[in-house]
Amino acid sequence: MRISRGDNTPDNAALIGFTNLRRARTTRPMVIERGRGIFLIDENGREYMEGTASFYCAALGFSDEELVEAAVRQMRSLPAYASGVYRTVPAALALGEKLAALAPMKDARVAFASTGSEANDFLIKFMRFRNAYLGQPKRTKVIARTGSYHGGTMATAALGGFPGTAAAFNLPMDDVLTVGQPDFVNRALEGESEAEFTARMLLEVEQTIEQAGPETVGAMILDPVSYSAGCVLPPAGYLTGLQEILARYGVLFFDDEVITGFCRTGNMFAAETFGFTPDCMSLAKALSAAYMPISAIVMSGEFYDVLEQASDVIGTMPHAATYAGHPVAAAVALRMLEIIEERDLVGHVQRVSPRLHRLIHGLSGHELVFNTRALGLGGAVQLHPLKGQPGVRGQAMMQTMMDQGLLLRVVGDTINFSPPLIITEAEIDEMMRRFTAALETLPREAA
């Protein structure tokens, strides 16, 4: 249904993120009205295949009745209540227990928030609380990687230098230490092997800690597979080597699995896929399949115990959030975790992923394709940029994909794939058919 304001003002009065605001005043956005499985239908009745699960989050697509029913049941029983002051709701308690049992860390404890941004923001806040209690108040600095995205709050938007964000908003960055993205495909030196590249990336982290002063560095945060940087896969040995360095300097290892958590990499968590053990994890997106806004901070028992000791001294944990552990969101998330087990979504991802990998890598010889990469139920096709115009070809590809009825995320000249976990092999074939058709319509100017 079209909404009109009844004057000459464009229909859309709401600010839409990652959008040119002036253009948004004169151009009506795509308005999605309905969903069916992995497909979306806009206000004009046109159908699109959603190949990145709507910002990597709609893990069960857009019409899962069991998640809808979980929300309806909880709405009818108790639609809202804030957890705090020794009060909470059954769904939040059950979800905390379930996540703690799943977590790849010892004696895990869980705190809730509403978004991935909030989870990472709260995690940094908890780190500062912890370190102050331990008599290390100078340990406030956080290491992040260029091109990674950890959220949109003042604290998280400054992490990683996601293109232009921190500078554009004039965000405080005194406590952020930035190191390079371990992108072997695009950042390796001429003749440098993968092992040599990994060693150089790890040395950069160690030198950054030394130069800042180890006594000032509290944590390093990273996304194991950086979709925000163009689906960057970590080189062999990078994550395990990083864990050893951080442990040696007493720097906490924060694993941002907002995108990679819950089956995306072929295991429940990317930490399992790559064989490392973080001190804390942040989870969101697929936690509720994005049907309700909810996120979680999963802490190792060792990290949590210090928070508990500090709360004894103060008399309380001076932190809460109105929607943290919201009963409806928690009920939907709990049902999502049950569905992962009941439908064997980890096994499904492992079964259909080879089809996606084969089709993505099958484009590696295309004249417009610079590189292909894939892991789990995800991957990327990186195009050759137009000379002197990085990102232009990627934007053109975005439009040609839409013309083919395909929605994918574009980062520069890289196109990311991250379809809903429920995608079938036949749907993977159709997604790649549409992608190839879009690729064939791009102009062939020299790269």
Structure description:
The chain has 2 domains: 31-63 and 344-440, Aspartate Aminotransferase, domain 1 (Alpha-Beta Complex), CATH 3.90.1150; 68-342, Aspartate Aminotransferase, domain 2 (3-Layer(aba) Sandwich). It is built from 16 helices and 15 strands. The chain has helices spanning 21-26, 53-56, 65-77, 90-102, 116-133, 154-157, 165-168, 184-187, 194-212, 238-249, 270-274, 301-314, 327-342, 345-361, 392-403, 425-440, and strands at residues 32-36, 39-42, 47-50, 109-113, 141-145, 176-179, 217-222, 252-256, 280-283, 295-299, 369-374, 379-383, 406-407, 409-411, 414-417. Strands 4-10-9-8-7-5-6 form a 7-stranded mixed β-sheet, sandwiched between helices. Strands 1-2-3-13 form a 4-stranded mixed β-sheet. Strand 7 (217-222), helix 10 (238-249) and strand 8 form a beta-alpha-beta unit. Helix 3 (65-77) runs antiparallel to helix 13 (327-342).
Cα Rg? 22 Å
Tell me which CATH architecture of the largest domain applies here: 3-Layer(aba) Sandwich
Structural class: alpha/beta
Q: Report the β-strand fraction as a percent range.
A: 5-15%
Beta strands, count = 15
Number of domains: 2
Portion of residues within helices: 25-40%
Count of DSSP-assigned helices: 16
Distance between the termini: 43 Å
What fold name goes in the CATH topology slot of the largest domain?
A: Aspartate Aminotransferase, domain 2
Mean pLDDT: 95
Report the CATH C-level class of the largest domain.
Answer: Alpha Beta
What's the oligomerization state?
single chain
Main β sheet profile: 7 strands, mixed
> Which segments are poorly predicted (pLDDT under 50) over 5 or more consecutive residues?
none
